[in-house]
Each structure stands twice: as C-alpha cells, then as structure tokens.
Amino acid sequence: MDIQICQSCGAKLDTDALTCPECGAKTETAIKAEEAEAEHEALLSMAPPQTAKRIRELEEKYAEGPSVAVCVQLSGLYKDLKAMPRAIAYMQDAVALDPENKFLKQKLRILIDGPDAAAAEEYQTVTRQSAESRKLVRAVGIAAGVVLALVAAYFAYRVLFPSAWRVAAFSGEKMDALQPKYSPDGTKIAFVKAPKFTVFGIVDSLAGKQEESHLMVVDAESGDPRSIAKFVGTRPEFNWIPGTGDLSFVNVDETWKPTVYRVAADGGVPSSLVNAREFSWSPDGRKLAYVADLGWNDPAAMHENDALFLYNTETGNSFKISAMECSSPSFSPDGKKIAFQARDQRRQEALYNEARYNPDAYDDVSNYRGDIYVFDVVTEQTVAVTDEGLFDRPTFSPDGSKLFVLGYTDPNGYENSLFVMNPDGTDRRVLLTKGEDYEYFRDFAVSPDGKSVVFEGIFVNPDKPRSESMESPLGAIGGDTNYLADLFIVGVDGAGLRRLPSKKFRSRSAPDFSPDGSSIAFQVEYVEMRHEIWASKL
Questions:
Q1: If you ran DSSP here, which 8-state letter would residue 346 be given?
Q2: What is the pLDDT of residue 356?
Q3: Side-chain half-sphere of 436: how many Cα atoms within 13 Å?
C-alpha cells in the first residue's frame, strides 16, 4: 500500500490522510489539496461573476454524481477561462462516462491538440455526411428532439430544485458559519463566524481559553465576508436595526455581564446600549425591548434580572414592562404592541408547593414553561393571552393580525406544536404538530407576505439507530447525534406541507426569509459537523 511520510514527525501515513495522528500536523496530501483549492478560488475570483456562480453550481452537481452534461458544461466554461487542464480533465470524465460517444472524443482531441489537429478529419467527416443527406436530416431531427427533451428537463429541474448557492464558508479554517439574517433591504446577510465544535474546544472554554467569535456581513448573492465585531460565545443574540442598516449584538464583559452593542454594518467601534441578553427592535429602530441581565454582582440584579424593559434610543430612558421572568420579546409590525413569554413566579411557587404534597402534580411543575403576554405601548397595559403555562417564542405575522407561538406538551420540552391566534389570544388553532417526517420542530420563520411558514423539523437520523446514537461519546457532551434537522414549508392555513428541495446536506436549520420573500437563507451541516451558510430561491 502506498504511504506518505509526515514532514513534521516522520510517521508513515496513508496517502489519503489529511492530518498526522501522531503530531496533528497537516500532511502533504492536505497541503496540496489546499493549494489546489486556493488556485481554484483565485481563478474563479477573476472570472465574470455569472460564470463563477455557474461553475460553482455545476461543481456542486458534479459532487453529487457526475453526468456527461455537467462535465461538458464545466469543460466549456473552464476552456473560456483559459484553464485548459481543468477543461481537459472534465472532458475526459465525460468520455469515461460515455466511451462510445465519438463527438466527446473529438472534443477531447481538440482540447488536447488544438483545433488545427482535428481540422482535416472534421473536413472528411463533413464531406461524408453531405453525401448522405437523408441520414443527416434524420440525425438533425433526432438532435432537435433531444434538445427539446433537455430543455423540458431543465425547466422541470428548476421547478423541483430552485437554485441554491453557498453564501459563506470557512472550510480552510476551524471555523463555522452560523445563524444567517438578511438585512432590511435584502442586499446583505449577517452571520456568526465561530470556532468549530470540538471536544478540545469545550475543554478550552471550561479553562477560560475560549476562542473569539465574529459578527460577519456578506453580500447576499455571495462575496467576501467582512468581520464587523468580535464577541465571546458561539451563538450570540444579534439582529439588524430597522431603518438604519446598523447591527446590534450581545457580548459579555470580563464579569460575564451581557450588554447589547450597536455597530455600523461596515464596521467601526461598537457602542453599548443596555445590559441585556435578549432584545427586539421596534420597526422604526427607535425603541428596544430587552430582557435585563445585570449579572450577579450588581445590587440591582435581584430586582431587575429577567425583567422586561423598553428602552428609548432618543432619550436614553428605560421603562419596566414586566417584573416577571421574561424572554423572547417581539414587536408588532406597527410598533404598538410587544409580545413576550414570561414565567409567573407566584404560579411557579404554587406548583412546587402542590407537588410537595401531591406527587401526581409533579408533571405540572415539569411542564411549566410560561405564558404569552402582550404589552400595549400606547396604553402601557399588559394582557395575558394564554394561561396554560406551556408556551414560548411569540412572533407576529407581517401584517400584525396574527401571533405565532410554540406550545409544549411533555416534560422534556421536545414534543411541541405551532399555534396561530389573534394578538388577544382568541381564535387559537394548531397549525403544526408532530408529522411523519419529523418528531418536533424548533426555529421557524413567517414569509413576508404572511402566507407561509418555513420551519426546522427535527427527526431521528435514519443512518444511526437511536440506541447507537445515545452510546456515542458525543452524547456525554450534549451532542444529539441521533437527531437531524431539515427545512419544511407550510401555508398559514395548514395546507401544502412539504420538505424544501435539498442538495443532500446532512442538516439544514435557522431559516430566514429575504425581505421580498423570494429567497431564504439557512445554516447547513455536513457529516464532519462543519457548518456553512447557504441561500436558495423559493
């Protein structure tokens, strides 16, 4: 068996090994692969944007399973870019897939030897064909039929599989791209660049050596991501500020007190706003609803931690909306209402006291998550719109006429349903519940026209039985290796439930609509637990 030698420690390795198991150094194979990828990216960076985009799309199809049509198109595109080795390689693949095709062999010969080398043979071929005109007419007819079939297949493919493209990835680094969010004008996408999830990363984090993460911005169609700010943690709270083009995010100081910061989309020095861990902006970007978090060293923490406040950016004043244990604030589209989830401490205490003397009531304690409340910004009145203690994540519809909330029905919080209701809690109905293709769901996004909901359905990995998954070493550190996720769409009337077309990613999650509703950005995960940001036309 062929081997390669580690240039760092001299260990003997398989030729396809990318890192040395002895010292962790990159192998010659890995270095060559990175150099080839760098050369490839440099070539595409100098190509016309549409050509580069088309090459990336075709190479994704090639990776899924090469075909003659894909190979021929890639060969032609690289020929146009004067990248002859790649053009020849793809044409060789096409010939290998269809070795009896003389046309492909001729194209390959022209690529290798140049057009003049095949000119004489081509002339003789044309002469023979002109003597057999009837056969030529028949061949043209067949070719026309093939072209029509290909055109029909192409449009059928575009209907079934809308165009998708990679927005951001860091395959050459130990970093992930996470949590995409479209800018208000739809031209940019903000996301998180975070250290790749590893066991060593967890150990470093516990030891206080956690790597920094970055808030990034990239053009929605693709481009070079730009770092806007740094922060601690891998999944921070962040969002665009309506009407401004700026971004806001949560970071912690040396005492782990979380603070909301504001920063321009082109970078700069972030400015601090309030001490909070969750927030929601009003549609005009002038008010901020936030869940206060002062840490545990501040004397005011006992009375203000977890309370919901309304901050006015123009005056710098804050108004307490609720003293309960709050989360998930959400402004209505007209800015006149704020929906939020809250846990009533008095109710919690009553449930615990009842469970002390009545074991049968313990499930009520375990199930209690909180209820949905709506605060009127004008009248400053708060109304509870649910009272079962099982709800979370309120989200207004784009026109403000409906409220979407998650409801939970088991002690672990996995079995859930998506409800839709009027903002006052009336006319509540179940929109989604456990389905054949998923056991429960997590993130969801309402389309800008309010007609559909895209959600993240969670299901058991069919390639890894639950028992084997639970025995995985990752199970000890919280890795639900027996679960995968994918994106589904359903109408707000409950009709048309289907899985969105996929490019065979291991998992897709964190969906976010573009402002015009034509595209959706999402986070993908590969088998090696590497994450990227992709987008797709709907």
A1: H
A2: 62
A3: 3
Cα separation of 134 and 120, whole Å?
24
Distance CA 45, CA 397 (A): 40
With contact defined as beta carbons under 8 Å apart, do 426 and 417 qualify?
Answer: no
Contact 327, 392 (CB under 8 A): yes
List 176's β-bridge partners, or say none. Answer: 194
Spell out where 114-246 has E strands: 164-168, 175-182, 188-195, 213-219, 226-231, 238-240
pTM given for the model: 0.66
Residue 429 reports pLDDT greater than 90: yes
Pair of tokens at residue 421: 């209701």
Are 327 and 339 in contact by the 8 Å Cβ rule? The answer is: no
Tell me, what's the pLDDT at 144? Answer: 57
Pick from 377, 379, 349, 374: which is nearest to 364 by CA?
Answer: 349
The pLDDT tens digits of the residues spanning 155-182 come to 444 444 457 888 998 876 788 999 999 9
Q: Residue 178: helix, strand or coil by DSSP?
A: strand
Burial class of 153 by CB neighbour count within 10 A (0 to 12, 13 to 18, 19+): exposed
With beta carbons less than 8 A apart as the criterion, state whether 313 and 290 touch: no
The 3-class SS string of 427-472 reads: CCEEEECCCCCCCEEEEEEECCCCCEEEEEEEEECCCCCHHHHHCC
What are the pLDDT digits (tens) for 92-109? 998 898 888 877 888 888
Q: Which residues pair with 227 in a beta bridge?
A: 216
Q: What angle do CA 162, 168, 171 make, to 5 degrees?
A: 115
- Structural domains present in the chain: 3-160 (1.25.40)
Mind spelling out the 3-state secondary structure of 117-141?
A: HHHHHHHHHHHHHHCCHHHHHHHHH
Calculate the alpha carbon distances from 278 to 112, 281, 291, 378, 454 in Å: 61, 11, 5, 22, 23
Q: What is the 3-state secondary structure (H, E, C) of 373-404?
A: EEEECCCCCEEECCCCCEEEEEEECCCCCCEE
pLDDT at 466 over 70: no
Give the residue from 346, 345, 365 showing the smallest Cα distance to 355.
365
In angstroms, the CA 219 to CA 32 distance is 30
In 3D, which of 7, 311, 40, 264 has the Cα closest to residue 172? 40
